[in-house]
Amino acid sequence: MKTVSILAASAFLASGAAAATAYGERKLIVGGEAVPTNSKLYTVGIREDPFDPNFCAGALISLTHVLTSPNCVNGTSPSLWVSVGSNYIIGVDGEMNKVVSAKTHPKFDNDYVSYAFAVLELELPVNKVKPVQLADADDPHVEVGTVVTSVGLGFTSVSSDGSVQSELQRMDVRLWGEEECSSRSEATLCGSAGEGKGVCLGDSGNPLIVESETGKDSDDVLLGVLVGSEFAAETLEMAKAATMST
């Protein structure tokens, strides 16, 4: 099973027929499309050093806090940095900020993927990027049939000579009803990205959002973050919105 998380709780990516991808061309948001430059900048890259590539992603939820996946911090407070406002996995074009604390929800249950999120506290307030809006616990955006979007900074290709090309990607997912969903908990919803599409290695922490009808990023609503997966999968299971304070 793979995992995906939805706001202040969890969601997980389940693989019905996961298959390892080839080294020569390894897509992480599989079947996705590039996000226009300077959009979805609340998608944050997480790295061990300001000059390293991102190994995880997250969502800026306040000027000093990032929501991400528990497996990006392993329940500890490691030496981490974030890149805010960049459309690329490698480089220093984004605003660099040091992480001063990393906390996983105390109710996090890895077996049931419950409360599967972590919050990073930043050393300084972010200057140039506005945080994404958070969904309410009973937000209508998670109803059956809703189309949500996974946004991520995973590699789009890794060539055999070691060179890397990467830019922010997006992929739409339509939510299913309970009859179509085999849930790990009562707080889980399922959905499908469609044939040949899915998330894969390196997409941990990717924001799951409902895009604004106005087209403005400032009106997007965050439903959750991707917990992680090893191989591509077309079926996604996502938890219903839950409050971070629960």
Task: Please tag this protein with its features.
246 residues; mainly beta; Thrombin, subunit H; 9-stranded mixed beta sheet; 6-stranded antiparallel β-barrel; 0% helix; disordered N terminus; disordered C terminus
What is the element layout, followed by pairings?
Layout: E1 11-13, E2 29-30, E3 33-34, E4 43-47, E5 56-62, E6 65-68, E7 81-84, E8 95-104, E9 118-122, E10 133-134, E11 147-152, E12 157-158, E13 164-165, E14 169-175, E15 188-192, E16 198-199, E17 207-210, E18 221-225, E19 235-239
Parallel strand pairs: 10-18
Antiparallel strand pairs: 1-19, 2-16, 3-14, 4-5, 4-7, 5-6, 6-9, 7-8, 8-9, 11-14, 11-17, 12-13, 14-15, 15-19, 17-18
In words, what does this structure look like?
The protein has strands at 11-13, 29-30, 33-34, 43-47, 56-62, 65-68, 81-84, 95-104, 118-122, 133-134, 147-152, 157-158, 164-165, 169-175, 188-192, 198-199, 207-210, 221-225, 235-239. By secondary structure, the protein is an all-beta fold. It has one domain: Thrombin, subunit H (Beta Barrel), CATH 2.40.10.10. Strands 1, 3, 10, 11, 14, 15, 17, 18 and 19 form a 9-stranded mixed sheet that branches. A 6-stranded antiparallel β-barrel has the order 4-5-6-9-8-7. Strand 12 and strand 13 form a beta hairpin. Residues 29-246 form the Peptidase S1 domain. GO terms for molecular function: serine-type endopeptidase activity. One of its GO terms (biological process) is proteolysis. Residues 1-19 form the signal peptide.
